[in-house]
Design brief:
single chain; alpha+beta; 4-stranded antiparallel sheet; 3-stranded antiparallel sheet; disordered N terminus; cell membrane; receptor
Length: 167
């Protein structure tokens, strides 16, 4: 039973209050009057019940004015109760536990991600730093493109047909 909003408006002459219990879609209202025959009224309509408790089955969550009277005393209540069929009631301790567990799990994931990313960065920089930089300088130059090879001794006849042209 989940109650999102229950508001009470008790008549100014009373020191007593209504007791409202909500379970699923059933709303039980207990009148502060205990003696005599109690007349119930729901939004202007007189009800047949004469007991101290009035039960509204399958309440549709619509606001209602409820009053109970006996003799010269009348108590009024503005009922604005939000009800639902498949709701579960959670007490404050359960909600606090769920929120705390969620925060701890989130914090744990953040710490794991931080340490794994820190390790990865450390390995990458250690791997690059462990290699001496001189090795890069000692590598042989890349093989030149054969179209631009220098003319070697004994190969001049290949280029003999290419004479410079005067422009």
């Amino acid at each position: 039973p989940l109650v999102m909003l229950v508001s009470f408006l008790v008549g100014p002459s009373s020191n007593k209050e209504f007791l409202v219990e909500i379970s699923g879609t059933t709303v039980t209202i207990t009148c502060p009057l205990t003696e005599g025959s109690i007349a119930w009224e729901l939004t202007g309509t007189k009800l047949a019940s004469s007991e101290t408790k009035y039960v509204i089955e399958n309440h549709d969550s619509s606001p209602a004015n409820v009053s109970c009277s006996s003799g010269g005393k009348k108590y009024e209540l503005y009922l604005n109760a939000r009800v639902c069929t498949n709701c579960e009631e959670l007490d404050a301790l359960a909600v606090t536990g769920i929120i705390t567990a969620d925060l701890l799990i989130t914090l744990g994931v953040l710490i794991l991600v931080y340490y794994f990313s820190k390790d990865r960065k450390g390995r990458a920089s250690a791997g690059a730093g462990s290699r001496p930089r001189g090795q890069k300088m000692q590598r042989p130059p890349p093989v030149p493109n054969p179209d631009y090879e220098p003319i070697r001794k004994g190969q001049r006849e290949v280029y003999a047909g290419l004479e410079s042209r005067g422009f």
